[in-house]
Design brief:
By secondary structure, this protein is α/β, with parallel strands linked by helices. It has a single domain (3-179), classed as Class I glutamine amidotransferase (GATase) domain (Rossmann fold), CATH 3.40.50.880. The chain has helices spanning 3-7, 23-35, 86-91, 95-107, 118-123, 139-144, 169-179; strands at residues 11-16, 19-22, 39-44, 49-54, 57-63, 66-67, 78-81, 111-114, 131-132, 148-149, 154-157, 160-163.
């Protein structure tokens, strides 16, 4: 990459379902992307608003920028998959979301998933031979999908960036912005 390419602002897709998103896992990496000079874009399974949560309590709503069925991987420099239990569980049942994630991983562009978000990676069938981390309860699912699971703050395996929980957000966000060349 040239110096110009590493400093050119780029769009970063944040893919979420319509509800059940762990708010801090959306907002903190979002801020890091903005502070690095890039443009976060909220992509969801439906237009309108999405409902975030602080664990099990409703938190803020956020306006959707693009519906995943209309999103093109080529328009984005990276993909972020926030967690929350219900969010990735809903995403993995949406064919357009799963196809978008699969194509993104296969593109070689950075894909950052935190907490329960790797469930969507399991459904996209992109984890064979990969090493990652997640919320501990997902480790059997990830191993069954062919991955090696590690209990670490952040794991970077080629273009795949994963973290365990909200406490890991600083390391997760740094790995994401580093991958963007920020």
């Amino acid at each position: 990459m040239t110096d110009t390419e590493t400093t050119t602002p780029r769009k970063v897709a944040f893919l979420v379902a319509t509800e059940g998103i762990e708010q801090v896992e959306l907002t903190e990496p979002w801020k890091a992307v903005e502070q690095a000079g890039h443009t976060p874009v909220l992509v969801s399974t439906e237009s309108g608003e999405v409902q975030a949560f602080n664990h099990l309590d409703k938190a803020d709503t956020f306006d959707v920028d693009v519906v995943v069925a209309d999103a093109e991987v080529g328009d984005y420099a990276a993909l972020v998959l926030p967690g929350g239990v219900a969010n990735p569980d809903a995403l993995r049942t949406d064919e357009d979301a799963v196809a978008f994630v699969r194509t993104f991983v296969e593109s070689g562009k950075p894909v950052a998933a935190i907490c329960h978000a790797p469930w969507t990676l399991v459904e996209a069938d992109v984890l064979r031979g990969r090493t990652l981390t997640s919320w501990p309860s997902l480790q059997t699912d990830l191993r069954n999908a062919g991955a090696t699971w590690e209990d670490r703050e952040v794991v970077v395996d080629d273009n795949l960036i994963t973290s365990r929980n909200p406490d890991d957000i600083p390391a997760f966000s740094k790995a994401l912005t580093d991958a963007l060349g920020a």
